[in-house]
C-alpha cells in the first residue's frame, strides 16, 4: 500500500503544493478547514493573528517537506506578538528536516491558522492503487489519525480501511457512509464525514491528483468535522490540462538543477557522485547508474533525454551535467530506438564547441543511425573516448573519473581538452 | 476460455498480421510506419480523424479505426497519438474490437489510463500493450513499435521488459550470444497499462518456439514479485520448465525519488530492487546484477538446464 508515494519527499514528477494552497482547494470544494491565511512578512502575520477567531493560533512554515513539526516548523503561539516574532524567525531562513537534506528548504511564507481543538482524529487519504486486478482511486481511512500512518500500517493493518472506487460507476454515498462508519465516526457526524469524502473525491478526480492526504481529519470540540492538515500531489502528466494548479508550483522548493532541467524538458535528478550520465530511457538510465556503481564509481545524476530529444536539448543536458562541479567524467549511453544517434552526436559536438569541455567524455552509442553518428564524431576531430560495449564504457568512465580526481588532489593539471 | 487468456493469443503477431497506424500522418507515426514496412510488417493503412480518403506513404488513410478495419481487414493497431488524445484513441480501438492495440505514447494522464484500463478488463476482444512502451516485435516477422529492427534475430528467447532502451540492450546481447529472440514485448513504464509481466510470461510459456525467457524489471510497484509467484506455479522445475533470467534496474536509485517512469517509486520499503531480486531468485529465476550480462545469464541458464 503506497500511501506516501510522494507525500514524504518533493518528487520531481508529482507536483506538490504548499499547505495554504491545499487548504484553499479544499475550501473551494466545500471541505472545511481551520481558518488561516498566508503571510510573507512578520507584520502580515501579526495582522492575521489579530483577526483570527481564536486567541491562540498555529504558525506553520510553508516548506514542501515532511517533518516540519519535529523541527520547529510548526508552533502554537498565544498572541499576535508571538506570531509576529515567530514569523520573523521563520521567514527568510531555511528549514532543515530529515527529508530536506542538509541545506534544508527556504521558507518564504508562513501560514497563520486559528487554533482548533480536535476531539477525535482520523486519517483519510485518496490515492491510486496500482494492482493488476484492483487499480485506480482508493479511499483510505483509519481511526488512528494524527500520527505516523506507516507505523500504523506496519503494526496494525486492520486499523486501515480501504474503499476502491469503480471509476466508471463513480463513488457512491453508500461507500462513503460505510467508510465513515468503519473509521469510527460517531453516528451524528457520519453523514458530514461521508459528504466530505464525496467532495474530496471530486477534487481528486477533477484536478488529476495522485495523492490527497488529510492527517488528521478531525472532529473538533464543537462536533464539527475539519481537515486539519492537507498534502495534495498532482499527476505531472496532466499538467497540460491543469494549468491553474501547475502555476502554483514553487520552484524554489526544488533542487536548482532540476528546475533548469525542467525548463529544457529534460528528466534530471541530481545525486552526489562524480560521474555524469546522459542516457535515453529511464530503465537504461537507472541501469547505467547501476553498472557505474558495480564498477566502483559513483553516478552524479540520473538524466533521461527521452525519445524525441533535439540536438539543442542534448547540448543543454551537457551544460546541466557539467554545471555540477563535482562531475569529473561523463558517460553518454545511448541506444537509439526513437532517439537517433546522429542527433546525439550533433549535440555532443555542439556542446564540446560551446562549453569548452575539459573533462573526459566516454560515449557509447548503439541503434538507430549509429553509423551516421560515429561518422559525425569521427569527422569532427573530437577526442572522445568511444566504446561499443556498455561494460567497457562504464569501466572506462570510472577509471577516467579516478584519474581526474587523483590529479585534482595532486594539483596536477591534466588536459583532457577536445581539440576541434 | 477466460477473457484474459483469449486476448493473450492476439499478442502472437506473425508475418501475416496486418496492422494499421493511428496517428500515422504525424512525424513519429510516419517515421515508424516506414520502419515497420521496411521490416516486412504488413502495414495496411492509417487513421487520422479528418484525413480520411487521403493517402500517406502510398497507403489509405481513414477517419476511424472501425472504418479502417472494415476496409483493410487490419487486426492490429499502433498508436502514435499525443498524450491529450491517446486515451481516446485506445478507447476507439477497443470499441472497434481490434484484436491488438499497441500504444507508444508517453505522458498519458493517470486518470485517463485508469478509465481505459477499466474498460479493457471488462471486455475480451482487444489486447492493449503499453502505453509508454516501445511496442512488440516478433523477430524476423513483424514489428509493431519503435524498436530498431536490425538488432533482432529470429531465435528462442522471449523478452519482456518495462523499459524501452534497456530492452534493446537485452536484444543485442541475446543476439550476440547466438540465442536470438522470439517475441520482445515492451510492457511500458506506466502505473496503469494493458499488459503486465504475467500476461507476457503466459504467452512465452505457451509458445513452442520460446525456449528461454528474459524478464527485465525496475523499482516500484509489485509486478515482478507477482510474476515470480506466477512462475513458481506455472513454470515448475521438470521437463517442461523453461529457464528464466532477469535483471532489475534501479538498485542504486535513492528511495522516494521518481526516476522517470510513473511506476518507478519506492515507498515505505516496498518496491525496492532488493525485494524484487529476492522474490525472483526465490522463484528460480537467474538474476544478474549487471545490465551488461543479461545475454550471458540466459545462455548459461539454458546450457545448464
Automatic annotation (TrEMBL), chain A:
Chief place of localization: mitochondrion
Q: Where does the ATP-grasp domain lie?
A: 23-243
Residues flagged as site, Important for substrate specificity: 56, 117
EC category name: ligase
Free-text comment on the cofactor: Binds 1 Mg(2+) ion per subunit.
Q: Which cofactor does it need?
A: Mg(2+)
Picking any one GO biological process from the record gives: succinyl-CoA metabolic process
Pathway assignment: Carbohydrate metabolism; tricarboxylic acid cycle; succinate from succinyl-CoA (ligase route): step 1/1
Reactions accelerated catalytically:
succinate + ATP + CoA = succinyl-CoA + ADP + phosphate
Subunit composition? Heterodimer of an alpha and a beta subunit. The beta subunit determines specificity for ATP.
Q: What is this protein called?
A: Succinate--CoA ligase [ADP-forming] subunit beta, mitochondrial
Organism this protein belongs to: Oikopleura dioica
UniProtKB/TrEMBL annotation, chain B:
Q: Which PROSITE patterns match?
A: SUCCINYL_COA_LIG_1 (PS01216), SUCCINYL_COA_LIG_2 (PS00399)
One Pfam family here: Ligase_CoA
TM spans (from-to): none
Q: In which pathway does it act?
A: Carbohydrate metabolism; tricarboxylic acid cycle; succinate from succinyl-CoA (ligase route): step 1/1
Recorded GO CC terms: mitochondrion; succinate-CoA ligase complex (ADP-forming)
Please report which protein family the annotation says this sequence is part of. Belongs to the succinate/malate CoA ligase alpha subunit family.
Quaternary data: Heterodimer of an alpha and a beta subunit. Different beta subunits determine nucleotide specificity. Together with an ATP-specific beta subunit, forms an ADP-forming succinyl-CoA synthetase (A-SCS). Together with a GTP-specific beta subunit forms a GDP-forming succinyl-CoA synthetase (G-SCS).
Q: What is this protein's record name?
A: Succinate--CoA ligase [ADP/GDP-forming] subunit alpha, mitochondrial
Source organism of the structure: Oikopleura dioica
Amino acid at each position: 500500500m503506497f500511501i506516501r508515494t510522494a507525500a514524504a519527499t518533493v518528487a520531481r514528477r508529482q507536483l506538490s503544493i504548499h499547505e495554504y494552497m491545499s487548504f484553499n482547494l479544499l475550501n473551494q470544494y466545500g471541505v472545511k478547514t481551520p481558518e488561516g491565511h498566508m503571510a510573507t512578512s512578520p507584520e502580515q502575520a501579526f495582522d492575521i493573528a489579530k483577526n483570527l477567531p481564536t486567541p491562540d493560533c498555529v504558525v506553520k512554515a510553508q516548506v514542501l517537506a515532511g517533518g516540519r513539526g519535529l523541527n520547529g516548523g510548526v508552533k502554537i503561539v498565544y498572541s499576535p506578538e508571538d506570531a509576529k516574532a515567530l514569523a520573523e524567525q521563520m521567514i527568510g531562513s531555511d528549514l532543515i528536516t530529515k527529508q530536506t537534506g542538509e541545506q534544508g528548504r527556504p521558507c518564504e511564507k508562513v501560514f497563520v491558522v486559528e487554533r482548533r481543538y480536535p476531539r477525535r482524529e482520523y486519517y483519510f487519504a485518496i490515492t491510486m492503487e496500482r494492482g493488476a486486478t484492483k487499480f485506480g482511486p482508493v479511499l483510505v481511512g483509519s481511526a488512528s489519525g494524527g500520527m505516523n500512518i506507516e507505523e500504523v500500517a506496519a503494526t496494525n493493518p486492520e486499523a486501515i480501511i480501504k474503499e476502491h472506487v469503480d471509476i466508471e460507476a463513480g463513488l457512491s454515498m453508500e461507500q462513503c457512509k460505510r467508510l465513515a462508519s468503519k473509521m469510527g465516526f460517531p453516528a451524528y457526524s457520519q453523514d458530514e464525514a461521508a459528504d466530505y469524502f464525496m467532495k474530496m473525491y471530486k477534487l481528486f478526480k477533477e484536478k488529476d491528483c495522485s495523492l490527497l492526504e488529510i492527517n488528521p481529519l478531525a472532529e473538533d470540540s464543537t462536533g464539527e468535522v475539519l481537515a486539519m492538515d492537507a498534502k495534495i500531489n498532482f499527476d505531472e502528466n496532466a499538467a497540460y490540462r491543469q494549468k491553474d494548479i501547475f502555476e502554483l508550483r514553487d520552484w524554489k522548493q526544488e533542487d536548482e538543477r532540476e528546475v533548469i532541467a525542467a525548463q529544457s524538458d529534460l528528466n534530471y535528478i541530481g545525486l552526489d557522485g562524480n560521474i555524469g550520465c546522459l542516457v535515453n530511457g529511464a530503465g537504461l538510465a537507472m541501469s547505467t547508474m547501476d553498472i557505474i556503481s558495480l564498477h566502483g564509481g559513483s553516478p552524479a545524476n540520473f538524466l533521461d533525454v527521452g525519445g524525441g530529444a533535439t540536438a539543442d536539448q542534448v547540448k543543454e543536458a551537457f551544460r546541466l551535467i557539467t554545471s555540477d562541479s563535482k562531475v569529473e567524467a561523463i558517460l553518454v549511453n545511448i541506444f537509439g530506438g526513437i532517439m537517433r544517434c546522429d542527433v546525439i552526436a550533433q549535440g555532443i559536438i555542439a556542446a564540446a564547441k560551446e562549453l569548452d569541455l575539459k573533462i573526459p567524455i566516454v560515449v557509447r552509442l548503439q541503434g538507430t543511425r549509429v553509423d551516421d553518428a560515429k561518422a559525425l564524431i569521427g569527422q569532427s576531430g573530437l577526442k572522445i573516448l568511444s566504446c561499443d560495449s556498455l561494460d567497457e564504457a562504464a569501466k572506462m568512465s570510472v577509471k577516467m573519473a579516478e584519474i581526474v580526481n587523483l590529479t585534482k588532489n595532486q594539483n596536477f593539471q591534466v588536459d583532457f581538452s577536445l581539440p576541434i | 476460455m477466460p477473457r484474459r487468456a483469449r486476448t493473450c493469443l492476439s499478442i502472437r503477431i506473425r508475418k501475416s498480421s496486418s496492422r494499421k497506424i493511428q496517428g500515422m500522418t504525424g512525424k513519429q507515426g510516419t517515421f515508424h510506419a516506414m520502419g515497420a514496412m521496411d521490416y516486412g510488417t504488413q502495414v495496411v493503412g492509417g487513421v487520422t480523424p479528418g484525413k480520411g480518403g487521403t493517402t500517406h506513404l502510398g497507403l489509405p488513410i481513414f477517419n476511424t479505426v472501425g472504418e479502417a478495419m472494415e476496409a483493410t481487414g487490419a487486426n492490429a493497431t499502433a498508436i502514435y497519438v499525443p498524450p491529450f488524445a491517446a486515451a481516446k484513441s485506445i478507447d476507439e480501438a477497443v470499441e472497434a474490437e481490434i484484436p491488438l492495440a499497441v500504444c507508444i505514447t508517453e505522458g498519458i494522464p493517470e486518470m485517463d489510463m485508469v478509465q481505459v484500463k477499466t474498460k479493457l478488463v471488462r471486455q475480451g476482444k482487444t489486447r492493449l500493450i503499453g502505453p509508454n512502451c516501445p511496442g512488440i516485435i516478433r523477430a524476423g516477422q513483424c514489428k509493431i513499435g519503435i524498436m530498431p529492427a536490425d538488432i533482432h534475430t529470429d531465435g528462442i528467447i522471449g523478452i519482456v521488459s518495462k523499459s524501452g532502451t534497456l530492452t534493446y540492450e537485452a536484444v543485442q546481447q541475446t543476439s550476440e550470444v547466438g540465442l536470438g529472440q522470439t517475441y520482445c514485448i515492451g510492457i511500458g513504464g506506466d502505473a496503469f497499462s494493458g499488459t503486465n509481466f504475467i500476461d507476457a510470461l503466459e504467452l512465452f510459456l505457451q509458445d513452442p518456439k520460446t525456449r528461454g525467457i528474459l524478464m527485465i524489471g525496475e523499482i516500484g510497484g509489485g509486478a515482478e514479485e507477482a510474476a515470480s509467484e506466477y512462475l513458481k506455479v506455472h513454470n515448475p522445475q521438470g521437463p517442461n520448465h523453461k529457464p528464466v533470467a532477469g535483471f532489475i534496474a534501479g538498485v542504486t536509485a535513492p528511495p522516494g525519488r521518481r526516476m522517470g517512469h510513473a511506476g518507478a517509486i519506492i515507498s515505505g520499503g516496498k518496491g525496492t530492487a532488493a525485494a524484487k531480486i529476492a522474490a525472483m531468485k526465490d522463484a528460480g529465476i537467474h538474476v544478474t546484477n549487471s545490465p551488461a550480462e543479461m545475454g550471458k545469464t540466459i545462455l548459461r541458464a539454458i546450457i545448464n538446464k
